[in-house]
Design a protein that fits this description.
By secondary structure, the chain is an alpha/beta fold. It has eleven helices and 17 strands. It is globular, with a radius of gyration of 20 Å. Bound molecules: NADP nicotinamide-adenine-dinucleotide phosphate and zinc ion (2 copies). One zinc ion binds next to helix 2.
Length: about 350
């Protein structure tokens, strides 16, 4: 077992600060990784502040992890010491249920083990995430990093990238389709880049007029300001697919009417009860509302290769771990450009 420096939230109201954790010894199937970079997802903030009522403290967030291998178990033969690898949103699943057999570990019927805040046999009894110096992970859940991806800018691919890639892929996004992306934050900016690379006409749907220029720079063909009722009316029945990244409960109805007949809006943002859904847009147009959770391990590796091929990484602001609380404040104000990534060298041993 290794004593490991980390940054933790001790309660819903306390800022994150230094905290020592113990990582398990490296087992036969394990990979120990020295973390170089960790992206900052809005989910980290939800868990730090117990927004979803399921946080177990101390919470050590972080599930966009890139680092180098420092130790390998005897049964890990496909990886090498010193190799750059990555870990995303989960670190274990049952391996035998129908979802796991279909490479959809994220929908494991026995419940998957998230990278932080899940029950575990490890010291501490709950998993601890990437705001730490090192992590020990079962080899099945370790991704390899393709050459050519900047390691800091690639870290957000491990959540923001796969969470948007997976539904775009599942709904067959391609040239000739019109895709709407709601919310220009970490997930949203990856959705624009990926949808654009898949060939679709991509429209940014934002509350922030100040982000219009950036949205176009990131690959949006057009921008729709969702707070402008006249502009919203002009775009009724235009979209084959909308990916909704809004992190808080909100009214779905104005967005549902933007869909073409038989179009789908996929929720990847706020999880939990939401405002009442008026079923008119569904019934009068066979429109659909769906959800999606990150992506499986094989699909995440496929997404990394896709990003390397298309030269896609995240637009990041590299921060020190000591700046994490200010980064959260900015995230709450929708002031993220467009993903914070922590340089873990800033965390002393
Ligand atoms: N399903 C999954 O697997 C999965 C994976 C990762 C994250 N998530 C969740 O996805 C959500 C987004 O995460 P993120 O890291 O992308 O967050 P983020 O970087 O904070 O971006 C969210 C964006 O949503 C828009 N927004 C915020 N409040 C809004 C409101 N009240 N009404 C309309 N738009 C609003 C803002 O964009 P504009 O300024 O452009 O309006 C904001 O920048 C979070 O809830 C996170 O927990 C889900
Ligand atoms: Zn995330
Ligand atoms: Zn399973």
């Amino acid at each position: 077992m290794t004593l490991t420096a980390s940054f933790a939230a001790q309660s819903a109201t306390s800022p994150l600060g230094p905290h020592q954790i113990t990582r398990r010894s490296v087992g036969a199937k394990d990979v120990q990784i020295e973390i170089e970079f960790c992206g900052v997802c809005h989910t980290d903030l939800h868990f730090s502040k117990n927004d979803w009522g399921m946080s177990n403290y101390p919470v050590i967030p972080g599930h966009e992890i890139v680092g180098k291998i420092s130790a390998l178990g005897a049964e890990v033969t496909h990886l090498k010491i010193g190799q750059r690898v990555a870990v995303g949103c989960f670190v274990n699943s049952c391996h035998v249920c129908s979802s796991c057999e279909a490479d959809m570990e994220q929908y494991c019927l026995s419940g998957f083990t998230t990278t932080y805040n899940s029950p575990t046999q490890d010291p501490g009894n709950f998993t601890y995430g990437g705001y730490s110096k090192r992590i020990v992970v079962d080899k099945h859940f370790v991704l390899t990093m393709p050459d050519g991806l900047d390691p800091a800018a690639a870290a957000p691919l491990l959540c923001a990238g796969i969470t948007t890639y997976s539904p775009l892929k599942h709904w067959g996004i391609k040239a000739g389709m019109t895709v709407g992306v709601i919310g220009l934050g970490g997930l949203g900016h990856m959705a624009i880049k990926l949808s654009h690379a898949m060939g679709a006409k991509t429209v940014m749907i934002t509350t922030s007029e100040s982000k219009v220029h950036d949205a176009k720079r990131l690959g949006a063909d057009d921008v729709l300001i969702s707070t402008d009722p006249v502009a919203m009316k002009k775009m009724l029945n235009q979209f084959d697919f909308i990916i909704n990244t809004i992190p808080v409960p909100h009214d779905y109805n104005p967005y549902m009417w933007l869909l073409k007949v038989e179009g789908t809006m996929c929720i990847v943002g706020a999880v939990g009860p939401n405002a009442a859904l008026n079923t008119q847009a569904l019934v009068f147009g066979r429109r659909k509302i769906a959800g999606s959770l990150v992506g499986g391990i094989a699909e995440t590796q496929e997404m990394l290769e896709f990003c390397a091929k298309h030269h896609i990484v995240s637009d990041i602001e590299l921060i020190k771990i000591q700046d994490i609380n200010q980064a959260y404040e900015r995230m709450i104000k929708s002031d993220v450009k467009y993903r914070f990534v922590i340089d873990m060298a800033s965390l002393p041993e």
